[in-house]
Amino acid sequence: MGGVSSIAITGTDTGVGKTRVGRALLRAALRRGVSVAPLKLVETGCIHKAGELVPEDGVALARAANVELSRVAPLRFELPASPAEAARAVGRTLSFTELALHVEAARALCPSLLLEGAGGALVPFGADGTFADLVARLGLPALIVARDALGTVNHTLLTVEALERRGVAVQGIVLQPVAAEPPGLDHRRQLGELLRAPVFGPLAFRPDADDDALADEIVAAGLDPKELFGA
Predict the structure, then answer these.
(1) Which of 1, 57, 119, 189 could form a disulfide with 14 if both were Cys (CB 3.0 to 4.6 A apart)?
(2) DSSP 8-state secondary structure symbol assigned to residue 127
(3) Quick check: pTM over 0.85?
(4) Contacts (Cβ under 8 Å, ≥6 apart) of 101
(5) In 3-state terms, what secondary structure has residue 27?
(6) Active-site residue, from 18, 40, 49, 226
(7) What is the rounded distance in angstroms from the CA atom of residue 118 to the CA atom of residue 132?
(8) What is the β-pairing status of strands 124-126 and 129-130?
(9) Residue 40 falls in the annotated catalytic set
(10) Pairing mode, if any, of strands 124-126 and 199-200?
(11) Which tens digits make up the pLDDT trace of 18-32?
(12) pLDDT tens track for 184-218
């Protein structure tokens, strides 16, 4: 797995642990002296607080990377839905041209980005298509976070196929448990036999782990930020 400077994180579904993996990579990079900026380009389901919409994932990513939140979450919506639908609910239409401008602005401050999507790879991101379409337009490779549970082989293969059909290189798959009880299935072996991309994990089920603990675990699983981001 060669270094790629910037990478997009997507998932096989919503709630699979994309932000946890992002936090782990960002804190691991920070501790290794690798400059990587998080970008939660569009966050939906934000909560009103003190007169503004607070992006929970954006806050977590900013903390892990030790950067200002204003750099991380430029587009925020209240409706917990796809970016396209959440924007439509307030009379807006997201275009890939607008989204690309936010990416360019972030790269001007830090060339290496960790771009986190919303939900799965085929979530509608605007009038121009899905998150996978946006990643293809930006020319970024992808890291897939997969739920380590029954059905994950099917969901992961579908996600890989959707990305590769658009010309998006898959840098790896990270297996993330969503329950304390292991599924009793060796998804790492199964996916490793079916895919060219490396498979990492499964990580531990630690919903309350802090950024440093997550960083330790992701590095132990074989994801070195220096290698991943080409530092």
Answers:
(1) 119
(2) T
(3) yes
(4) none
(5) helix
(6) 40
(7) 11
(8) antiparallel
(9) yes
(10) unpaired
(11) 999 999 999 999 999
(12) 899 999 999 999 999 999 999 988 999 999 999 99
